Amino acid sequence: MKEQQPIVHKKRNLTIGSAFRTGVSVGLGISFSSNFAQNHPEFMRDLNRALTNGYGDKDKAQTIVVPNPVFPTFVPTIEIVSTAQAIEPTEVAQIVPHIEWLSENKTEYGFNTHLRGDAQSGQNLDLTHFKHNVDLLKNAGQTWIRFDMREDQIIKMSSPTVINWNEHNLQTYDEAIEYARKQGLKIFIPVGIPNGITSGMTQTELEIFAHHFYGGLAGRYAGKVAVWQIANEADVHDFRSYDKIMREMPQDYLNAFAGVVQNGSDGIHQADPNALVTVNMSWWFGSGRNLESEGQRLFGAVVNSIDIITFDFYPDTSTANISKMPKIVADFSQKFGKPVIVGELGLPTASFSVKDQGHYMGLSVGALKGGLVTPRAVLMYELTDEANISGNEGSFGFLQTDGTPKPSWQQILPWLQEN
């Protein structure tokens, strides 16, 4: 007799059990923390009812959906499939590893860093120093590491449907990702569109390319990368030409970006259903831009293609700006039905003192902790100064270029404890 195959809806639902013997569970490996169970008794009641006696007509295959209690429109909805015709289990349990992280009202912490895929590129860090940073973060009790995968270093000339990967440089990222994963860190990787290779493509060709490009990366690192970010701060950096800066996104540009994100996101979710997709926004309070309006436009355009909203917050030393961040997180999370990650939170020591860096970044983390809706993660920008970049852009590190901690390192660590 043909087995009932698990029903998996990418992005939105999570199959935790896919086959039962005449409605009897074959053994689901499901666990929730006591804190989660206490905070969501109705959810636990509904789940227990579905698992024990909620199948109804046992002569028919049936799907029971238990909504996520915190973000009803967001993954992971829990889907239970039962069938009287399933003789053997097709799959005992399939648990997304981030289920409690996404469902509980807690914040995790980590840092941004960089990694050079090409040893001649001059970008920090090389693989040895990257591993040292991973060890440092682990020993400091951090949960996350976020580092960009340089699109210009991982791909050669390609067509929309055939990606010609730079295997030599990708091997550096292979080793880095595997090392960070084995050290227990969750990995968040931004990747932009390779501008030179795609410069002559039509919009349709670019969307096809995005599907294969992002899907190829997600397939290569399936089960290892928690979050993929498509492009970087596309609200100010043209995703087709990163050096082109905008104060306001033209509508045709936003429509084009939404198409690329949709296709890239589909490619990622098809290659790795457990991976989460995001787009980030630059929220520098001193930019003079209409940040609220641009944020609404950006995330409104891509809301159906992403799983998480990511903000890059730069409040400088303004306590007024710092006090606004929790409301921004809550407003956007509630409006779009998505959890929020603060992908970058930083202060450059080229323009501000090291003492200010530790003090005001600590206040910023504290403010975010106390919000009505807390970010799922706050990632400081960044761990190490960048030796080959002068001025503000190279001075956001809590460590100097040689790895020596700035005094702000010890100031910020007490704030970065999970609540």
How would you portray this structure in words?
β9 (227-230), α9 (251-271) and β10 form a beta-alpha-beta unit. The chain has an 8-stranded parallel β-barrel with strand order 6-7-8-9-10-11-12-13, surrounded by 6 helices. Strands 1-5-4 form a 3-stranded mixed β-sheet, with helices on one face. The protein has helices at 34-39, 41-52, 99-103, 127-139, 151-154, 167-182, 195-198, 203-220, 251-271, 291-302, 319-336, 354-369, 407-412; strands at 13-17, 20-21, 24-25, 62-66, 77-82, 108-113, 144-147, 186-191, 227-230, 276-284, 308-314, 340-345, 377-380. By secondary structure, the chain is an alpha/beta fold. The termini are far apart.
Detail the topology: elements first, then pairings.
Layout lengths: L12 E5 L2 E2 L2 E2 L8 H6 L1 H12 L9 E5 L10 E6 L16 H5 L4 E6 L13 H13 L4 E4 L3 H4 L12 H16 L3 E6 L3 H4 L4 H18 L6 E4 L20 H21 L4 E9 L6 H12 L5 E7 L4 H18 L3 E6 L8 H16 L7 E4 L26 H6 L7
Helix pairs in contact: 4-6, 8-9, 9-10, 11-12
Count, helices:
13
Report the C-alpha radius of gyration, rounded.
22 Å
Shape: globular
Give the terminus-to-terminus CA distance.
Answer: 50 Å
What is the ordering of alpha helices and beta strands? EEEHHEEHEHEHHEHHEHEHEHEHEH
Relative strand content: 15-25%
Quickly give the structural class.
alpha/beta
Mean pLDDT equals: 80
Q: State the helical fraction.
A: 25-40%
> Which ranges are low-confidence, i.e. pLDDT below 50, for 5 or more consecutive residues?
1-34, 53-101
Major sheet strand order: 6-7-8-9-10-11-12-13
**Based on DSSP secondary structure assignment, what is the total number of beta strands?**
13
**How many strands, what sense, and barrel or not for the largest sheet?**
8 strands, parallel, barrel
